[in-house]
Specification:
- The longest helix has 17 residues, at 23-39.
- By secondary structure, the chain is of the alpha+beta class.
- The relative contact order is 0.12.
- The radius of gyration is 22 Å and the shape is elongated.
- Helix content is 59%, strand content 14%.
- The chain folds into two domains: 5-102, Peroxidase, domain 1 (Orthogonal Bundle); 106-178.
- The chain has helices at residues 5-19, 23-39, 41-48, 54-65, 71-82, 89-103, 119-132, 165-178; strands at 106-113, 137-144, 152-156, 159-162.
- The chain has eight helices and four strands; from the N terminus they run H-H-H-H-H-H-E-H-E-E-E-H.
- It is a peripheral membrane protein.
Length: 182
């Protein structure tokens, strides 16, 4: 199976980052570049416009990023534009950022609760996640979902731990429906 474009370029940048001990700096630069692309949809439209010459697109990348990020990141972006891969730039940056997080053992979690958590509760959630996983740090997004009634739902990648009252009530209702009265 052919390797995805984002994986090909992202893996190459990751290997460079590790070999040259630039993991932290390239991670920060990739995060900043991704934010620029996400916040400026006009940049994406310009890079994908069929009537704009490749050399002009490359100059735009050089001018927009050359002063602010390393030649490694700028070179990656210019290379992707020169190979007509500009549509995969954001996906490649996300892939690279994910590889760095994996390398640095930084987990990403989404915690949903019925009410906002206090700072002490957030600290308990963080310490529990660190104790039960192989990660050394976590980036946690806290979401308030009043439909949960109580408890919490924690998502880490494709794993879900659901201790919400809503889910327990739903399971209880299913169990009650299975009971047959004589």
């Amino acid at each position: 199976m052919a390797k995805l474009v984002s994986a090909t370029y992202g893996d190459a940048l990751f290997e460079l980052a590790v070999e040259e001990s630039k993991v932290d700096s390239l991670y920060a630069e990739a995060t900043d570049c991704l934010k620029v692309f996400e916040e400026n949809s006009e940049l994406g439209r310009l890079l994908n416009h069929p009537k704009i010459d490749k050399s002009e697109k490359e100059k735009v990348i050089e001018n927009a990023f050359g002063q602010f990020v390393s030649k490694d990141i700028t070179g990656l972006l210019v290379l992707m534009v020169s190979k007509d891969r500009q549509k995969q730039i954001m996906e490649t940056l996300r892939y690279f950022i994910g590889k760095i997080k994996e390398y640095k053992k930084i987990g990403s979690a989404v915690v949903s609760t019925a009410k906002p958590l206090t700072a002490a509760q957030k600290e308990k959630v963080l310490s529990r996640l660190l104790a039960t996983t192989g990660y050394v740090d976590f980036e946690i997004d806290y979401i308030v979902d009043e439909s949960l009634i109580g408890g919490m739902v924690i998502r880490i990648g494709d794993r879900v731990v659901d201790s919400s009252i809503k889910t327990k009530l739903d399971e209880f209702a299913k169990d009650l429906k299975k009971i047959q009265l004589a």
